[in-house]
């Protein structure tokens, strides 16, 4: 009898832990009632789909992917996040939008949750939807339009967000030493130069060759780094959303 009990215990100890139900993130995450549930985020959530993970105060909510993954795990779901997503943007669904004309003094706009200094990056928690008397002509409809961008000037908490407030984060400043790289067809060349202006990733910047003093146009690719040739064309084609910090 003891032998049978010992064998049973050993078999249980060797058995792998039960994995949660595998789910996949929806290609378009929408919420209709302001309460974001696991079924709004994942396909295959089943009965766990009713579990609420966040609220959507405006037309858009930005969720931390790690927190969502943990909430799903607690509800018995397994989201692998093989793509390494860092945040999830949830938008209003067909019934959860703000389609009715807004009266003056009751406009839903994106505002700054805190004051930002010039050069500071806008993070998801730095913006929030709120009511205002009016909206700037270039007010973004989506928080994702400014998240990852840098403030061009000091911005006051509570002020309505304008696209003119922000620009790509600067990785090169005027006077910086910059290494310029060219790669194509197995050929790799580099030169050292000095930046003649400031630039964010993907922006064109003038670089003066330290040796020849000639000025060339390159594309900023990182702090103190720029590229020319095919790599520059590829970087510019990606758009801000591909290389902004997430």
TrEMBL record:
Pfam families referenced in this protein's UniProt entry, alphabetically: ChapFlgA (PF13144)
Residue ranges of every copy of the SAF domain listed in the record: 107-167
Function: Involved in the assembly process of the P-ring formation. It may associate with FlgF on the rod constituting a structure essential for the P-ring assembly or may act as a modulator protein for the P-ring assembly.
Highest taxon of source: Bacteria
CDD domains: SAF_CpaB_FlgA_like
Protein name: Flagella basal body P-ring formation protein FlgA
Position of the signal peptide: 1-19
Gene this chain is encoded by: flgA
Source species of the chain: Phenylobacterium ferrooxidans
Keyword GTP-binding: no
Keyword Signal: yes
Keywords: Bacterial flagellum biogenesis, Cell projection, Cilium, Flagellum, Periplasm, Signal
């Amino acid at each position: 009898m003891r032998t049978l009990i010992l064998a049973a215990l050993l078999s249980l100890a060797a058995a792998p832990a039960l994995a949660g139900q595998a789910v996949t993130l929806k290609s378009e995450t929408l919420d209709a009632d302001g309460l974001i549930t696991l079924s709004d985020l994942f396909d295959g959530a089943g009965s766990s789909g009713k579990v609420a993970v966040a609220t959507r105060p405006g037309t858009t909510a930005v969720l931390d992917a790690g927190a969502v993954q943990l909430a799903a795990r607690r509800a018995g779901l397994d989201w692998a996040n093989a793509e390494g997503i860092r945040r999830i943007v949830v938008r209003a669904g067909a019934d959860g939008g703000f389609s009715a004309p807004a009266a003056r003094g009751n406009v839903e706009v994106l505002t700054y949750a805190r004051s930002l200094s010039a050069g500071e990056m806008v993070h998801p928690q730095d913006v929030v939807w709120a009511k205002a008397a009016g909206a700037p002509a270039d007010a973004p409809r989506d928080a994702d339009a400014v998240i990852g961008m840098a403030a061009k000037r000091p911005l006051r908490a509570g002020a309505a967000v304008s696209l003119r407030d922000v620009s790509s984060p600067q990785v090169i400043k005027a006077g910086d030493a910059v290494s310029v790289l060219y790669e194509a067809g197995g050929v790799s060349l580099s030169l050292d130069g000095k930046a003649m202006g400031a630039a964010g990733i993907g922006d064109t910047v003038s670089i003066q060759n330290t040796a020849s003093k000639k000025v060339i146009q390159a594309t900023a690719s990182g702090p103190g780094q720029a590229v020319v040739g095919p790599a520059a064309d590829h970087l510019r084609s990606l758009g801000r959303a591909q290389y902004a910090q997430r």
